[in-house]
Fold these 4 entries.
Entry 1:
Amino acid sequence: DCSITGGFVYRGAAIPHLYGHYLYGDFCSRRVWAMRAEPDTVLDIVDLTPQIDPVSVLQTVTSIVRDGFGEPYIIDRTGSVNTGRLYRLGADFVGLPGGEGRGSNDTRVTTGSAMPNPFREVVRFEVSGTNREGGRFAVYDVRGRLVRSVSESQTGRVIEWNGRDDDGNVLPAGVYFLRFESNGRVETRRVTFLR
C-alpha cells in the first residue's frame, strides 16, 4: 500500500447497498474499499477488490470517479502513462456483506447498445427483462438536465429517440445520456447526436 486514491461518497441509484459508502483505492496494491463512517467513528471498511477484480485485471488504480448520475467508475493505468482503462461498477456488483444485490424483487432489466451511435435521425436500444411493470425512459444532456421523458415504457421492446425534447423541438448536436429506470435498477447509455 503506497498511495491512497481518493474517491467519493456513493449517492447513485444502481447499487443501493453501497449508498452512503466512501469509495477509495490504492494505486500500488490495486485494491478498492468501501468505508462507512459517522462523525469521529468508522463503522466498517470492506475490501471490494474480490468482487470488482476477481482475476486481477487492474494494474494501478489511478482514480475513482462518478458520472452525471453518481455511478462509479475506476480508472486504471495500464503500462505507459498515456494508456488506461475505465471500469464501471454496475448493478450486477454484489459487494458488501449483507448487501441485497439481486433479490426477489429484481427486475433483471438490461439494455442493449444504442445503435447507431453516433446518430442523425433516430437512435434505438432494446430493453429486455422479466419486469412487466414497465419503467421510465429519460434523456439527459451533458449538464444533467432532463430533456426528454417517457414513463411506463414496456420492457422487451425497442426504445427509440429522435433527438427531440418533450415539446418536439430538435435538440442541438452533442452528447446525451439515455437512461432507463425500472424498480430501482438503472441502465444508462451515452450517445452522440449529429445534425
Note: Residues 49-52 form the longest helix (4 residues).
Entry 2:
Amino acid sequence: MRSIAFINQKGGVGKTTSAVNVAAALSRVGRRVLLVDLDPQSHASLHLGLQPADGEITVYDVLVRGAPLAEAARFADQRLTVVPSNIHLVGAEVELVSTPERERCLLRAISPHRENFDVLVVDCSPSLGLLTVNALACVGEVIIPLQPHFLALQGLGRLLETITLVRSHINPELRVLGVLMCMYERGTRLAQEVIDDVRGFLAAATPEQPWSGARVFRTLIRRNIKLAECPSFGQSIFTYAPGSHGAEDYAALAAELTSDGAPQDGIVAAATADAYAAPLIPEAARAIAATDSASTAAARPESAPAEPAAAAGESPSPP
C-alpha cells in the first residue's frame, strides 16, 4: 500500500483541499483509497459530507481508545473510504502522554488493513505535534502543499527538521516526495520566484536528507473559486464541478503521482469487483459490486494536461 501524508503547519495553504481531491482523483482511476482525517478541525471529513454525531466512533477513538479502524471508517464514494475526525481529537495528544509508543498508534491501527487498500492518504493537522508525528510514522511519502508567497516559506525549514527527526528515530523509509504549489497565479512574478527558490533548495539536498530527490510538482494548482465552494456542498471537486480548472489540476496531479516512478506496491492499473473480496467495510464492497461488473475494468483517468495553463475564464477570487 502506498502511503502519503499532506503536511504543512501553516494553515490556509491548500493542504486539506489537496488531500481530499487527490484521494478522490485516485479513487476515480481505480485505486482503493483510505483517507484519514487527522485534523481536529475535521475539514477533510466535512469536505466529503461526513459529520460524525456525538457518540459515533472517529479517528480519536482509534488512537486513544484502541477502537478498530473498521468501526470508524465511512464509505464516502466508490473506492474511497474515510476515517473521519471531530473536535475530540484536540485532546488526543494529552491523553496519549502515558501510552507506550504513542507515536505509532496510527501505524498499529492501519497495519492490519494494508491489503485492503492501494493508497493511504493522511490529512494532517496544521501543527508539528504528536498527531503529525503519528502520520509521519505511518506513511512512506510526504507532500508539502505550499502557497507561492514569501511568508508561506518561513515554516518550511522547521517542518523538514521534524521529518528528519522522525526518519532518524521512528521511520527510516520516510521521504519527501515533493512540494505542491497551490493557489497559483501565473501572472505574478512573486509566484515564479518562490517556485525557483524552492526548486533550488530541493536540488541542493544531500543524499542523507529526507528531501533528497524531491521536486516541485509539474502540476500547479491554480487559484479557482470552485475549489473554495465545493466543501460547503460536501463534495469533491470532481462531483461538484468536474469541468473546472480545479478538477483539471487535481486530475493532472493524480496522473503525475501514478506515473512518476515512485513506489507503486499494491497499486493496480485497473480495478474490478474481484479486488474487493476482503474489504475493510462489507457495505462498501456491496455498493461497489452493484455498480462495477466483475469483468469490467474501472474507468480510465480523465485527460488532463501535464502542466495546466493559466486560469482563463475562471473567477480569480481567493478561497
Note: DSSP finds 13 helices and eight strands in the chain.
Entry 3:
Amino acid sequence: MKKLTLLLIVFIFGLSGLSFSQSDKGKAMKEEKGTKGKEMKEEHAKKDSDKKDYQKIEKKEGKEEDKAGKKDDKKGRAYGTDKEGMTGKEFGKMRSEDAKNKLKKQVSDSKEQVAASEKKLSDMKDKVKKAKDSLEKKKKSGQLKGDKLKEKEEMVQEAEELVDVLEQSVKSVKTIVESQKLE
C-alpha cells in the first residue's frame, strides 16, 4: 500500500513537471513567433514604402511625358478615333458599307447552309423510303416475322418522324433567311 501511494505521488509530480516544461516550451515558441512576426511586418512596411516611392517617381515622369507628347498619345476605344486621314463623313460611309457587306455575307452563308441542309434532308428521305420498301419486301416474302418485324417497323416509323421534324425546322430557317433584306 505504501508503495502504491509513493508511486502515485511520484507519478503526479512527474506529470506536473512535464506540463510545466511543456508550457515553458510553448512560451518560448510564442516569443519566437512574435519576434518573427514583428520582423516580417517591418519588412513589409519597408517594401510598401519603397513601392510608393517608386510609383510617385513613375507618375512624375509620366506627367512630363504626357505634356511632351499629348497629341501623339490618343488611344481611344470607340470607332472613329483613328480615321486614317479621312473626314467624319467619309469614315461614316466606309463603316456603313462594311456593315452592309457583313450582313450580305452572313445572309449568303445562311443560304448555303440551308441548301446543304435541304440536300441532307432529301438524302435522309431517300434512305427512309428504301428502308421502308425493303421492309415491305421482307414482310411479303416471310423473312421477317413477329418481334423482329415489329422492331424494324418501329425503327422506320421513328426515322420518318425524325425526318418530318427536320423538314419543319429547315423550312422555318429557310423562311427566316429569305425574309432578310438585301439591298
Note: The helical segments are 2-68, 88-141, 147-179.
Entry 4:
Amino acid sequence: MFVSTSLLVITNQGIVTMRYHNLQACNWLRVPQICALFSCRYSRFIRQVTRVRRCGGRDRLLLICSCLLLLQSSIACALEPLEIAVIANNRVPESIELAHYYMQQRQIPDNHLILIDASNDETCSRKHFNQAIRDPILQQINGLADRKKIRCLVTIYGVPLRIHRQQVDTSKEKGAGKDDQAAVDSELALILSGSYPLDGWLANPYFLGFRQTKTVLKRDNVLMVSRLDGPDPAIVRRIIDDSISTERNGLQGRACFDARWPKSEKNKPDAYGLYDSAIHRAAELVRSRYLLPVRLDSKSELFQQGDCPNTALYCGWYSLARYIDAFTWTKGSVGFHVASSECSTLKRKDSQVWCKRMLENGIGATIGPVFEPYVLGFPQPDIFFGHLVDGYLSLAECYLISLPYLSWQMVLIGDPLYLPFSHDNKTEKLLEKK
C-alpha cells in the first residue's frame, strides 16, 4: 500500500503520468521519457527512479522515499502561474484589460506582462512579426529577473493570429516560394531557438511520437504557447471564468468522438487511417477512465444538428469551414475539429470556421490551424485527450506533448493552466460511479 501511495504522490506532482498500482506492473522505460518533457531539474530524480527496478523490497521502498525527499524542494506541478508570461497589444485597449484580468485571476506576477505595439489585424507579414512581435517579446523576456522560469507564453485578444507567406523575388533570392506561412503562436514557441529553417514544419521535440527521434529543435529552447482570444472580449473573459469554475466543480457532460470509418475497416498505414485510429483510441481511453459517458460514431456522415447535447469533450472530422451545429457545449468543454484553416479567423463575422463558431457557442478550449496543416500536423487525439483526462498535466502541456510540429499552423485557444479533471473532482466522480 505504501508503494502505491508513494507512486501516486510522484505522479500528482506532474513528474510522470502513470496508472499503475504496484511497482512490478510499471513500464519504467516511460519514466525518463516523460520526465524529460518538463525540465532538466529532474535529472537526479530520473537516475534514482530508473534504479528502483533493480532493488529488492526494502531497498526499493527506501529509494522511493529518497526520491520523494529529493523532489520536495524543487517540485513543479503541472504548469504554474509563475512560469507564464502574458502578451498584450498596446494598440488594443481590450487586450491590456483582458491581460490584467487573467493575470489577476491566476495570480501571475505583474512583471510577467509583456506589451507590444503590433498591428491589430489578424494577419501580419513576416517582417512585421519579426520587428513588432518577436523581437520586443524576446527582449522583454530576457529582461525578466526570473526569465529561466518562463515555460509558457499566453497571447491575448488583439495579438495577430497568423503570418502570411513572404512574397519573394524569384530572380534574386534562392529558395523562393518556400512555405513560411505560419501561426504567430507556433513561431513564438521557438522564440528562444535563435535562427531556424522557415521552409515548412519542424519536428516538436516534446511530441511523444518523436521521443526516439533526433530533432533540429532542442527541448530547452521550446516554450508552450496558448491564446486567450475569440470573436469579442466577452468570450475571452468567459473562457477564463469557465476554466477556473470548472476546475473547482468538475467538468460535466459527455465525450463525443466522430471517426470516419469503423476501426477494423481502415487499417492502411496512410495519414488518414492512422489519424482515424487515433480518434478511436482517444474514445477508448476516455471511456476507460469512467469519468464521462462516451459516444463514438464511426460512420462517414458527421454528427448532425442536435446529435450531441451536453458535450464536454469532442474530436471529429471533416467539414471544411462549415460548422455543424450538432452540439451544446458544457461549461469548460474542450474540443477540436480536424479540417484545414479552421482557425484562419476568429473575428470575421460571416465566417463559419469551427474554432470561431465553437467559441461563440460556448466551448472553453479549442485547437485549429490558421492555414493548411495536413492531417499529420494536428495534435494526436489519443495523446491529447488521454493525458487531459488523467488530470496530471495542464491544457497547454497536453497540447505540447500531442503536437507533432512547430513553426507551423496550429493554435491552442484556452487557459494554459486549465485542469478540467483535477484529482479531487475525479475521486468524487469515481465514488459516484461505484
Note: Confidence is low (pLDDT under 50) at residues 1-55, 68-76, 169-177.
